Amino acid sequence: MKRILVVDDNPDILDALDLLLSLHDYQVSTANTIKDAVLTANNLRIDLIIQDMNFSQGTTSGDEGKSLFYKLKDIAPSTPVIVITAWSQLETAIELVKAGATDYLPKPWNDTKLLELIAANINTNVVGSTKTIIAKQGQSSTFIVESQPMKQLIAMAGKVASSDISVFITGANGSGKERVADYIHQHSTRSANPFIKVNMGALASELMEAELFGAEKGAYTGATTTRIGRFEAANGGTLFLDEIGNLSLAGQMKLLRVLQTGQFERVGSSNTISVDVRVISATNSDLTQAIADNLFREDLYYRLNVVELHLPPLALRQDDIIPLARHFVSGSHQLSDITAQLLKQQPWPGNVRELENHCQRAMVLCNDQLLLPEHFMLVEPTNSKQSALPDVLSSTSLKVEDDKTNLKAVLDKHQWVITRAASELGLSRQALYRRIEKYQLSQPPLPSQNEH
């Protein structure tokens, strides 16, 4: 996550920018004095700076902003700096742009313009890897894939990227759904336009509509200014709605209308706004069950799910584990052979995110460059039969998606309780039903009550 330092002596401005940038997935640090700003820049990796021109009550010359700018440039000469200024300091702001500032914006600033300026200038370098990388030159969509299931998924993602159809991504938490959405956007004709991400699970239900569609000033308590919604911010580009199952029924109705017509109204307004946005959605929950429970609209589900891409859990794509681990360990750190072997034997219930966290922790615990099992807190099995993987995954040659025998074994294990079997297989209930039909499997008859 990119970190932005905001420097302003007005706490209301700091709060407003903190909220705006946080909602657009930036990590924000704030400072209200030159001293605090310099201290933060010296101690944290900052990807972009937004700074005011005055920091003392009653000053309007802009000299303080000038002094801060040159101090920050001495600390981080390549970090972009955006100056926000009142018109009285416009001449000084232009002087700083000539001296190397990225740009300036007058107060009150335009949220959309500011976000576009940040997106165009914030550092988005792609980190390389030791194994196969699928990436688009100069963009941040990078995939490390060696396993056959992921190669097939990326191939399908590449095919759907060139169209404008809605894509529905399913998979467990931490499996990489956001990365797939980013890959589709970067390989689409919309790649030069915004890619806006919304985690529906992180938003309060009463604020979801305002976040998606915007709100007029005074539309609700605390709405002191007009808010631009995510659909407006994504106009011409792609909107990624993660954890879509958390959207309220009222929000679902409004979303369905946007998908059908491209039109909506901000909360508290009767003016219709038209946008051109491609929607990619994702979930780790069973929306078919939510439909049955009247918690999710069936017509919206089919609008979102034109093409479904299912991300298998990391335990089912073992060939990706070591390339990913080597990607996550930085510098000259290396995995020992036994560490690599044990990493492949772990169940990884938290998927790729859990693997990355383990790698980060191992580098902290390691005193030299060789990463050993104890740095990952891994325990070597006493024999091959005691692998940490579930029995159905004990052989890498057994692919649940393609193997009728394994599919039936998991179903029988859970007595054909579809929810449990689907959870172990990392599939949605709908996907599991399709595989049952494909392999023409049937539930064995229940034993007679007279049988003992």
Task: Describe it.
The protein is an alpha/beta fold and 452 residues long. The chain folds into four domains: 3-121, Response regulator (Rossmann fold); 133-310, P-loop containing nucleotide triphosphate hydrolases (Rossmann fold, 3-Layer(aba) Sandwich); 317-389, Helicase, Ruva Protein, domain 3; 392-438, no CATH class. The protein is 40% helix and 14% strand. It has 19 helices and 16 strands. It has helices at residues 11-23, 34-43, 63-75, 90-98, 111-121, 148-161, 177-186, 205-213, 230-233, 249-261, 287-292, 298-304, 321-328, 337-344, 351-365, 373-376, 404-413, 418-425, 429-438, and strands spanning 3-7, 27-31, 48-51, 81-85, 103-106, 133-135, 142-144, 167-170, 195-199, 238-242, 263-265, 272-274, 278-283, 307-310, 334-335, 370-371. It has a five-stranded parallel sheet with strand order 2-1-3-4-5, sandwiched between helices. The termini are far apart. The relative contact order is 0.08.
